[in-house]
Amino acid sequence: PVFVGQSERFSTTSAGYGVSLGVTTKNEVLVWGWNPIGIGGAPASSEIPTLIESIARPVTVAAGQSIFAALDQAGSLYTWGLNVDHALGRPTEQMNALPGIVQDLPAMQGVALGDHFMIALSRAGEVFSFGSNSAGQLGLGHLKSAATPTPVRLTASIKSIAVGATHVLALSHDGKVYAWGSNQYGQLGHPHQRYQGQARLLEMPEKISALAAGMHFSLALSESGLVYAWGWNGVGQLGANDKKPRSTPTK
């Protein structure tokens, strides 16, 4: 391990596919890493963190494979990078766009990135989605991409979200888990269909306090401190001492 930015102090960071983002204690966004084609206007492959000047008073960042996002203190959502399948959620004539604010959103508290799509969570517990939708990962009941943020129909107020390659998990304030998107490895927690275009309540053994999602697998931390895993297990990522996939949450 080495210090990043030498004297810089960070309040939060996010690791993407070769490119990393950080918010400093001075409320500035820095970017560094492997970026040979200059995605989002960042310098090509720099070990030295570089300032992104166009984001005012950021509080959190999210780095993906070719898309990036940030939230500021007012709850405004900034997106930038490659606008494949409208992944940036805002009109732009440039395929490789600089940071800009996504319009027509309420104040946001979180954002998570998948493969050419984003899921955003408002401070009021509402979920919005935009971008690619080839496996129903936007949760809109169809497979059409969305160019602007669209509300996901849920029956509960959402506390947090987790996003894999093409599937989404949402945790309600009362400890329930909702899932949608691709399900070819059982990453939605049931074996019934290969993809699911609408949010579905997942049967969990107990109340859940936190979620995480990998490429095609899911993890949940229960209120009692137990970890449950399900989905793809090709390299043992479910911690079940084998390489068999699971279509139901397994302790």
Structure description:
The strands form five sheets. Strands 1-2-3-4 form a four-stranded antiparallel β-sheet, with no helix packed on it. Strands 5-6-7-8 form a four-stranded antiparallel β-sheet, with no helix packed on it. It is built from no helices and 20 strands. It has strands at residues 10-15, 19-24, 29-33, 46-52, 58-63, 67-72, 77-82, 96-101, 108-113, 117-122, 127-131, 146-151, 158-163, 167-172, 177-182, 195-202, 208-213, 217-222, 227-231, 246-250. By secondary structure, it is an all-beta fold.
User: How would you characterize the largest beta sheet?
Assistant: 4 strands, antiparallel
> Main sheet: which strands, in order across?
1-2-3-4
Number of strands: 20
The helix count comes to 0
Order of helical and strand elements: EEEEEEEEEEEEEEEEEEEE
Annotate the secondary structure layout.
Layout lengths: L9 E6 L3 E6 L4 E5 L12 E7 L5 E6 L3 E6 L4 E6 L13 E6 L6 E6 L3 E6 L4 E5 L14 E6 L6 E6 L3 E6 L4 E6 L12 E8 L5 E6 L3 E6 L4 E5 L14 E5 L1
Antiparallel strand pairs: 1-2, 2-3, 3-4, 5-6, 6-7, 7-8, 9-10, 10-11, 11-12, 13-14, 14-15, 15-16, 17-18, 18-19, 19-20
